[in-house]
Description:
The complex is a heterodimer of chains A (about 325) and B (about 350). Chain A is α/β, with parallel strands linked by helices. Chain A has two domains: about 1-185, 3-Layer(aba) Sandwich (Rossmann fold); about 195-325, Rossmann fold, CATH 3.40.50. Helix content of chain A is about 35%, strand content about 20%. In chain A, strands 3-2-4-5-7-6-12 form a seven-stranded mixed sheet, sandwiched between helices. In chain A, strands 9-11-10-13-14 form a five-stranded mixed sheet, with helices on both faces. In chain A, strands 1-8 form a two-stranded antiparallel sheet. In chain A, helix 8 links the parallel strand 10 and strand 11 (about 230-235). The model of chain A has no long low-confidence stretch (mean pLDDT about 100). Chain B has about 350 residues and is of the alpha/beta class. Chain B is built from eleven helices and six strands. Chain B has helices at about 10-15, 20-45, 60-70, 85-90, 95-100, 135-150, 165-180, 230-245, 275-280, 285-295, 300-320; strands spanning about 75-80, 125-130, 155-160, 180-190, 220-225, 250-255. In chain B, helix 7 links the parallel strand 3 and strand 4. In chain B, helix 2 runs parallel beside helix 11 (about 300-320) and helix 6 runs parallel beside helix 7 (about 165-180). The longest helix of chain B is centred in the N-terminal third of the chain and has 26 residues, at about 20-45. The chains are: A alpha/beta (about 325), B alpha/beta (about 350). At the A-B interface, helix 3, helix 4 and helix 5 of A face strand 2, helix 6 and helix 7 of B.
Amino acid sequence: MAELTYRDAVARxxxxxxxxxxxxxxxxxxxxxxxxxxxxxxxxxxxxxPKRVRDTPISEQAILGAAMGAxxxxxxxxxxxMFSDFLAVCFDYIANEFPKSRYMSNGQLKCPLVVRTGNGAxxxxxxxxxQSVENWAxxxxxxxxxxxxxxxxxxxLFAAAVRDPNPVIFFEHKSLYAAKGxxxxxxxxxxxxxxxxxxxxxxxxxxxLALMVPRALQAAETxxxxxxxxxxxxxxxxxxxxxxxxxxxSVARTGRLFTVEENPRLCGWGAEIASIAADxxxxxxxxxxxRITTPHIPLPAxxxxxxxxxPSAPRIVDKIRRCLNG
Amino acid sequence: MKTSIQPQPADARxxxxxxxxxxxxxxxxxxxxxxxxxxxxxxxxxGLVKGTSHLSLGQEAVAAGFAAAMxxxxxxxxxxxxxxxxxxxxxxxxxxxxxxxxxxxxxxRGKGGSMHLxxxxxxxxxxxxxxxxxxxxxxxxxxxxxxxxQTDVSVCFFGDGTTNIGAFHEAVNLAAVWKLPVxxxxxxxLYMEYTSIKDVIPAQLQHPAADRASAxxxxxxxxxxNDADAVYRSxxxxxxxxxxxxxxxxxxxxTYRYSGHSRADPAKYRPEGELEAWKARDPIKLYRQRLVEFxxxxxxxxxIEDESKRKLDAATEACKAAPPPPESILTTDxxxxxxxxxxx
Lengths: 326, 344
């Protein structure tokens, strides 16, 4: 057991899979010599050499296309898209190529690859380097979508993603890179589609993802200590597959459901959870499902404005308290 | 558009490594593609081919020349105008027509359609309907060959219009930088879709692909795409170079499509006489003349033509008799476990 940052967990997770399987290769912009712009891939070039850890041109389409062609023909590529906002410049592969090739070919083509990408706000980078876009991937049939919130989950879920025979979009939260957590020694392999109840509670269920997980936990602590409200906090960990048994099971116990997401309001993943809960847990609910989200705006650069936009622990506390007492 | 190609004198054409068997193969491939594409067109008119379709009538020599020069493990990456390249790799006509007719006997049981013909067992690694998308994908397949020390070559076919999309430039650059065993084949049929390619490239350029090759440190290669022998030779040279670790090639083949861009296009934008001028240089007519010139008997040529018609008629009847795909496959093969489950 050792304390590791989320950032170092990324490098350890990649190294674990590259050591295990010589067909695992890694490509992206500045990932090799520079060790990644977030320093999350430091040491991999030295360990695995330039044949397996490859710097690419600034060519996101070429990165994802090359990853796909390699995956189709026998490699297990890990491709980095530096900022998840840049998925928009290579979205053809995310939306049209990776997820449809198997279906269109009636099962002839395969696409086992992982796209890692730095997601989310908090770095004061402004509207084109701060978005939380896991919902962009969630809406496309054929993809798997993962977003870990802790160092141990980074390693375990990443291993599961690399070993998964499908295209997986792996969202690392930029504001969590410095977060620390206990990580066991040895190989760590987790399971996609398994949400985790991180804190039990009887009064309401709060579903969170990535950076919103520590904020949800902080909010739950405050609600318990200061208001006597016990919140059950669930970390979804992956959006596809979606572990609804855990979510709906919790709602059956608590009778209330809140989601906290970093996506802008319209079509964030919480909307899908709310819709499913309305369909399938209506008679378990004692009140409306409530979504706590970023407002439907581009993200500002200024620190005070960005902080205002994102759901914070005090905002979560306030919202839940008002809904439960109202 | 004028081409810089000069027809080669007969003596030069004769004096190469193409033996009679290879010439007959090239002829057979062109005839089969022509017949099958013409049948696809006829089946539209009968309402039996649904959706859209993009025919290669007039462009057969490019598909035949590249396929005939390939080795078995080589990989083809095609566009939505991909029937010809799929047939050229040996995929049976019935499988192709069945897919166009969206029947259960189709190559992908009707799940892909005309624009996405795929037959992995024949090395056809997909037909891609987003212009330019498959150039980077072909790079990836070539990267795998390079990484694993395998000798197969990835060949990527695309139209002249593709040379104006970003993925073209990203892919050709990456292939050149990484020295990948990939061949980029531009089929320049003079029109991007409904618009002449010369209207959408700088006036200084004559060839949208070849004239940009130097930007990526590649040789400028323009081939007479209506001459299957010329295509074959050029393909063989590029494969040999790629297999030897010499990196990618970008080859522009000058050709012409007889039909419009897709079934919806009557091609009225063509100047008068252009189609007729190209038909005078019809690749199959030219090749037939050459076979006769080289002393191959009329009966041997006729046998190839008759056999193609016979196979095509049998394939057509089989497709007409085939049922539509069963409803049970609607949700299969979304994920690798064969299903579509996204939740528990």
